Amino acid sequence: QKEVEQDPGPLSVPEGAIVSLNCTYSNSAFQYFMWYRQYSRKGPELLMYTYSSGNKEDGRFTAQVDKSSKYISLFIRDSQPSDSATYLCAMSAYNFNKFYFGSGTKLNVKP
Amino acid sequence: ETGVTQSPTHLIKTRGQQVTLRCSSQSGHNTVSWYQQALGQGPQFIFQYYREEENGRGNFPPRFSGLQFPNYSSELNVNALELDDSALYLCASRPGGSGNTIYFGEGSWLTVV
Asked: Residue B106: which of A42, A88, A101 has the nearest Cβ?
Protein backbone atom coordinates (compact mmCIF):
# COMPACT_ATOMS: atom_id res chain seq x y z
CA GLN A 1 0.00 0.00 0.00
CA LYS A 2 1.30 3.44 -0.91
CA GLU A 3 1.80 5.96 1.87
CA VAL A 4 -0.28 8.54 -0.02
CA GLU A 5 -3.12 7.77 -2.43
CA GLN A 6 -4.46 10.27 -4.93
CA ASP A 7 -6.93 9.79 -7.76
CA PRO A 8 -5.01 10.47 -11.00
CA GLY A 9 -8.06 11.79 -12.86
CA PRO A 10 -8.20 13.37 -15.32
CA LEU A 11 -10.85 15.66 -13.92
CA SER A 12 -12.59 17.89 -16.44
CA VAL A 13 -14.84 20.76 -15.28
CA PRO A 14 -16.40 23.86 -16.88
CA GLU A 15 -15.02 27.28 -16.08
CA GLY A 16 -16.49 28.66 -12.85
CA ALA A 17 -17.06 25.26 -11.25
CA ILE A 18 -15.95 24.32 -7.74
CA VAL A 19 -13.24 21.69 -7.86
CA SER A 20 -12.54 19.20 -5.10
CA LEU A 21 -9.23 17.33 -5.03
CA ASN A 22 -8.47 14.71 -2.40
CA CYS A 23 -5.76 12.51 -0.94
CA THR A 24 -5.77 9.78 1.66
CA TYR A 25 -2.79 8.59 3.65
CA SER A 26 -1.88 5.77 5.96
CA ASN A 27 0.85 7.16 8.25
CA SER A 28 -0.58 8.77 11.39
CA ALA A 29 2.80 10.50 11.98
CA PHE A 30 2.15 12.97 9.15
CA GLN A 31 1.56 16.45 10.54
CA TYR A 32 2.41 18.82 7.68
CA PHE A 33 0.32 18.83 4.53
CA MET A 34 0.92 20.64 1.28
CA TRP A 35 -0.63 21.08 -2.14
CA TYR A 36 1.49 21.78 -5.18
CA ARG A 37 0.44 22.75 -8.69
CA GLN A 38 2.51 21.47 -11.58
CA TYR A 39 2.16 22.69 -15.12
CA SER A 40 3.29 20.43 -17.93
CA ARG A 41 7.07 19.88 -17.92
CA LYS A 42 7.61 22.36 -15.06
CA GLY A 43 8.62 22.00 -11.43
CA PRO A 44 5.89 21.83 -8.73
CA GLU A 45 4.75 25.18 -7.32
CA LEU A 46 3.65 25.41 -3.68
CA LEU A 47 -0.02 26.40 -3.38
CA MET A 48 -1.07 25.70 0.19
CA TYR A 49 0.54 24.52 3.39
CA THR A 50 -1.31 23.43 6.53
CA TYR A 51 -0.30 22.00 9.87
CA SER A 52 -2.36 19.29 11.60
CA SER A 53 -6.14 19.31 11.23
CA GLY A 54 -8.34 22.18 10.15
CA ASN A 55 -8.99 24.52 7.25
CA LYS A 56 -6.87 27.15 5.55
CA GLU A 57 -8.09 29.59 2.93
CA ASP A 58 -6.07 31.60 0.41
CA GLY A 59 -8.07 33.43 -2.23
CA ARG A 60 -9.94 30.89 -4.33
CA PHE A 61 -8.17 27.96 -2.66
CA THR A 62 -9.17 26.17 0.56
CA ALA A 63 -7.21 23.31 2.08
CA GLN A 64 -8.79 20.95 4.59
CA VAL A 65 -7.13 18.33 6.76
CA ASP A 66 -8.99 15.63 8.68
CA LYS A 67 -6.36 13.69 10.59
CA SER A 68 -8.92 11.39 12.20
CA SER A 69 -9.89 10.12 8.75
CA LYS A 70 -6.39 10.54 7.26
CA TYR A 71 -7.94 12.59 4.47
CA ILE A 72 -6.98 15.93 2.96
CA SER A 73 -8.74 18.06 0.38
CA LEU A 74 -8.11 21.08 -1.80
CA PHE A 75 -11.08 23.12 -3.02
CA ILE A 76 -10.82 25.57 -5.90
CA ARG A 77 -13.65 28.06 -6.24
CA ASP A 78 -14.54 29.82 -9.50
CA SER A 79 -12.12 27.62 -11.42
CA GLN A 80 -10.32 29.20 -14.39
CA PRO A 81 -8.72 27.68 -17.50
CA SER A 82 -5.38 28.80 -16.07
CA ASP A 83 -5.99 26.35 -13.18
CA SER A 84 -5.57 23.48 -15.65
CA ALA A 85 -2.57 21.57 -14.31
CA THR A 86 -1.65 18.55 -12.23
CA TYR A 87 -2.21 18.94 -8.51
CA LEU A 88 0.05 17.06 -6.12
CA CYS A 89 -0.58 16.51 -2.44
CA ALA A 90 2.43 16.09 -0.18
CA MET A 91 2.95 15.42 3.49
CA SER A 92 5.65 15.07 6.07
CA ALA A 93 6.16 13.96 9.64
CA TYR A 94 7.55 16.33 12.28
CA ASN A 95 11.21 15.78 11.30
CA PHE A 96 10.81 16.92 7.65
CA ASN A 97 13.43 14.42 6.55
CA LYS A 98 11.22 13.15 3.76
CA PHE A 99 8.16 14.40 1.94
CA TYR A 100 5.67 11.89 0.57
CA PHE A 101 3.77 12.78 -2.58
CA GLY A 102 0.61 11.54 -4.18
CA SER A 103 0.73 10.61 -7.85
CA GLY A 104 -1.10 13.81 -8.84
CA THR A 105 -4.58 14.63 -10.20
CA LYS A 106 -4.72 16.15 -13.65
CA LEU A 107 -7.31 18.94 -13.84
CA ASN A 108 -8.72 20.44 -17.04
CA VAL A 109 -10.90 23.54 -16.76
CA LYS A 110 -12.80 24.11 -19.98
CA PRO A 111 -13.62 27.67 -21.10
CA GLU B 1 10.05 32.53 -7.97
CA THR B 2 11.45 29.91 -5.60
CA GLY B 3 15.09 30.89 -5.90
CA VAL B 4 15.99 27.29 -6.78
CA THR B 5 17.78 26.91 -10.11
CA GLN B 6 18.74 23.66 -11.78
CA SER B 7 21.00 22.75 -14.68
CA PRO B 8 20.93 21.42 -17.26
CA THR B 9 17.25 21.62 -18.13
CA HIS B 10 17.35 18.74 -20.60
CA LEU B 11 19.91 16.09 -21.41
CA ILE B 12 20.19 12.77 -23.18
CA LYS B 13 22.57 10.05 -22.02
CA THR B 14 23.36 6.52 -23.11
CA ARG B 15 22.75 3.50 -20.90
CA GLY B 16 25.79 2.81 -18.71
CA GLN B 17 26.99 6.42 -18.69
CA GLN B 18 27.22 8.72 -15.69
CA VAL B 19 25.41 12.03 -15.17
CA THR B 20 25.76 14.99 -12.81
CA LEU B 21 22.84 17.33 -12.20
CA ARG B 22 23.29 20.63 -10.40
CA CYS B 23 21.16 22.80 -8.16
CA SER B 24 21.57 26.21 -6.58
CA SER B 25 19.29 27.42 -3.79
CA GLN B 26 18.81 30.62 -1.84
CA SER B 27 21.09 31.80 0.90
CA GLY B 28 19.86 30.42 4.21
CA HIS B 29 18.22 27.36 2.66
CA ASN B 30 20.50 24.86 4.34
CA THR B 31 18.45 21.74 3.58
CA VAL B 32 18.32 20.40 0.04
CA SER B 33 16.59 17.29 -1.22
CA TRP B 34 16.38 15.55 -4.57
CA TYR B 35 13.36 13.85 -6.08
CA GLN B 36 12.80 11.69 -9.14
CA GLN B 37 9.52 12.14 -10.99
CA ALA B 38 8.67 9.62 -13.68
CA LEU B 39 6.08 10.54 -16.28
CA GLY B 40 2.58 10.47 -14.76
CA GLN B 41 3.87 9.89 -11.23
CA GLY B 42 4.44 12.00 -8.16
CA PRO B 43 7.97 12.91 -7.06
CA GLN B 44 9.86 10.13 -5.25
CA PHE B 45 12.35 11.07 -2.54
CA ILE B 46 15.97 10.21 -3.37
CA PHE B 47 17.89 11.81 -0.51
CA GLN B 48 18.28 14.92 1.62
CA TYR B 49 21.31 16.92 2.75
CA TYR B 50 21.57 19.23 5.72
CA ARG B 51 24.70 21.29 6.21
CA GLU B 52 26.61 19.10 3.75
CA GLU B 53 25.68 15.81 5.44
CA GLU B 54 23.18 13.29 4.08
CA ASN B 55 20.40 12.92 6.67
CA GLY B 56 17.76 10.94 4.83
CA ARG B 57 17.58 8.53 1.91
CA GLY B 58 14.76 6.92 -0.04
CA ASN B 59 14.66 3.55 -1.78
CA PHE B 60 17.29 4.31 -4.39
CA PRO B 61 20.45 2.24 -5.02
CA PRO B 62 23.94 3.51 -4.11
CA ARG B 63 24.63 4.49 -7.71
CA PHE B 64 22.54 7.58 -6.85
CA SER B 65 24.79 9.86 -4.81
CA GLY B 66 24.94 13.50 -3.93
CA LEU B 67 26.91 16.37 -2.53
CA GLN B 68 25.99 19.66 -0.89
CA PHE B 69 28.41 22.59 -0.81
CA PRO B 70 28.77 25.50 1.63
CA ASN B 71 27.53 27.97 -1.00
CA TYR B 72 24.00 26.38 -1.00
CA SER B 73 24.64 24.47 -4.21
CA SER B 74 24.33 20.72 -4.57
CA GLU B 75 24.78 17.88 -7.04
CA LEU B 76 23.03 14.65 -7.87
CA ASN B 77 25.23 12.01 -9.48
CA VAL B 78 23.90 8.87 -11.10
CA ASN B 79 26.30 6.15 -12.25
CA ALA B 80 25.68 3.23 -14.61
CA LEU B 81 22.55 4.80 -16.07
CA GLU B 82 19.60 2.53 -16.82
CA LEU B 83 16.67 3.16 -19.14
CA ASP B 84 14.35 3.43 -16.11
CA ASP B 85 16.36 6.39 -14.85
CA SER B 86 14.66 8.51 -17.52
CA ALA B 87 12.67 11.06 -15.51
CA LEU B 88 12.41 14.64 -14.30
CA TYR B 89 14.88 15.21 -11.47
CA LEU B 90 13.79 17.87 -9.02
CA CYS B 91 15.86 19.74 -6.50
CA ALA B 92 14.02 21.20 -3.50
CA SER B 93 15.28 23.48 -0.78
CA ARG B 94 13.95 24.25 2.66
CA PRO B 95 14.60 27.39 4.65
CA GLY B 96 16.49 27.06 7.88
CA GLY B 97 14.92 27.93 11.22
CA SER B 98 11.16 27.53 11.15
CA GLY B 99 10.92 26.61 7.47
CA ASN B 100 8.77 23.51 7.21
CA THR B 101 7.95 23.10 3.58
CA ILE B 102 10.00 22.70 0.43
CA TYR B 103 10.38 24.77 -2.70
CA PHE B 104 11.21 23.17 -6.03
CA GLY B 105 13.30 24.16 -8.99
CA GLU B 106 12.09 23.61 -12.55
CA GLY B 107 13.89 20.28 -12.79
CA SER B 108 16.27 18.53 -15.14
CA TRP B 109 14.77 16.23 -17.74
CA LEU B 110 16.98 13.17 -18.21
CA THR B 111 16.45 10.77 -21.08
CA VAL B 112 18.48 7.55 -21.12
CA VAL B 113 18.66 5.78 -24.48
From this structure: A42
